[in-house]
Structure of MMPL family protein:
Amino acid sequence: MMNSSGISASLLSLGAVDFGIVVDSAVVMVENIMRRYKNATPAEKQKGIVRFTYDCATEVGTEVLFAILIIILAYLPIFSFERIEGRLFKPMAFTLSFAIFGALLFTMTVVPVLMSFFYRRYFESKNPGPIEWHNPVYEWVERKYEKIVHYLVDRSKKVVMIAFTGVTGLLIVGACLGTEFLPSLDEGGFTLRLYFPVGISLPEAKKFVPKIRGMIYKNEQVNMILSQYGRNDDGTDPLPPNRLEIYVGLKDYKNWNEKITKEQLLIRMRNDLEEGLPGVKVSFSQPIMDNLSEAIMGTIADLAVFVSGQDLKEMRHISQQILDIVSKMKGASEYGIEQEGPAPQLVIRLKRAVAARYGINISDIQNVIEAAVGMEPISYLYEGPMDTPPKERALFGIAVRFAKDYRQSAREIANIPIISPKGERIPLSELAEITQEDSPTMIFRQDGKRTITVRLNVRGRDQGGFVAELQEKVKKEVKIPEGFEVRYGGQYENLARVGKQLAIVIPVTIGIIFGLLFMLYRNLKSVIVALSCIPLSLLGGIYALLGRGYYFNVSAGVGFISLFGIATMAGILFVSKANHLRHDDIMMSVREASILSAVSQLRPRLMTMLLALLGLIPATMASGVGSDVQRPLATVMVGGLASALFLVLTVMPSLYILVMGSKEDVKSKGSSKSLSGDYASIYPEPEYSFISDDEEYQAPTEKSKKKLKSNKDKKLKRIFSFLGFTVG
């Protein structure tokens, strides 16, 4: 499926795929069949292992199907990602969805067949012996857990109140987490930018390149250097004369003899360059992210403040005020105004009245100035044999202008002679006013508006908090005249855009999950209990971010999104088991069903959660190139799964008792309304629902039980037929 979707096997598609999650459905299926084999009665063994295994598989088939659908559906917000975040996280979401769907097909079809094949001898033997290895550790854990559950359910209100008070408190703390678009990426090498004083010429800037390369090469970690100043060969990336870009390639970290991190190496290089080149500003960044950011947002900075208007002088004044504010803020680094400032220019204003008295045309004066100071072609030269057609010969222009000594200053230019119609030699100074003025060297436009950009990077602080503080200070300290606009872009623009998008998509996704759970249970209370796993898992995710000092970014958000489906699976297994127990024994109380469900589901919940958790631990500790994007995601999921494992095992039984109440009874199977349309031929009807005390309960007869069993078998056969398999 990856091949047909055009997704290649790479760090982006496989880097954070948790293969523990992939096997969760098979674990639930195998555990249920094993437990049923172990407790099979002689009457059940009479059915034969094929039929009995089929019955065991159908007991959890519906729950597994809905749980996997919800896990895949939880990735809907990731599927909606665009631009940079889509490139980074969509491959992982699609790959994991493909793997989970394949595992679902394997679980629903192949796993029951393999179980019946491997355990046929045990099932048919009169003295089969133990079906599984004796595990004293798990048996001890199970006994202790049962005692703990009894203790906790006797104090259900206190347990639930303490748990959700803690969740609420930490969610409030989590709302104060710093925010950023993406963590700082490590692409191996890095891009070094040097900003010389405005007005420096290209030949003068070129003189510094060998010195700069030598200062960089003295670090033994450097593998290669590629420098660029001015315009590149294809003309697509013109740089101003005062800007020098250098790509620095590094050796593999394993081959570094000196024990130093990349961050420490960059700090050392910055200090060396700033000491060796006074007045030069130094900036470091990553080449791939730079190209993406510049192509999409027009800037490579973490934050760009765009000042738009018509008056360049006023725009420059506003930009300078904002730059002064930025320079005093904590966390601001590598700040400056993107566009070059005004540079001295020679301005020649012709005196039309004086020129008219001499009878000289304005165009004649302009032609002389152009030829003397600039360059004017007077003829053309063809290169090649004379018998070759002109179109096939090289053409060169022949241009003339004054010698350098006669045009290198305003005084020499003022003495340029202009010949009048009468043959008089009149100096240019009599026909024009020649002054030296500061004028803009370049005018940058965005969306058709003149724009000046204040660029900066944020170091040691979250982008969201920095921008919020900057916006408040600009609003108070900078007066923005009418007709001018200040807006904030760069990486922060992506952060704001993704935040607005997720604010819509995540509630929609949770609503769809709610609808699927209601289709499964046809009971609002059961849905609420199953969904309560989501806030319980968020608790650990937030704590993990705080513990590792990470900000909330898109990668961490993807981790929280992934938790929705995985945590809901644990709730589905618990609630479904408790409801099945109450259905099978109508006299069983809610308390008893909750305890029995918690104890009987201990093994599958431990296995599914621990497999998913352990599968992500390597990603949390990864330190190679490209691992920066995956670490926050894996950290959130490990913390969330750990808290979900603990809180679901301890809080869920008490919550089930409080929500379901102690006076409800379970109605017989098949009593609820059936699904309509095409879905009725694919999904089975719910096996249970709830009635209130004022309704009369009618116990199911043997005839009705057989009929319901037959209907269920037919519907499950439809599911397998829909998937392309045949059941006898």
Q: What stands out?
A: Confidence is low (pLDDT under 50) at residues 663-699. Residues 83-118 form the longest helix (36 residues). The chain has four domains: 2-176+523-666, 188-285, 364-439, 669-728. DSSP finds 29 helices and 17 strands in the chain.
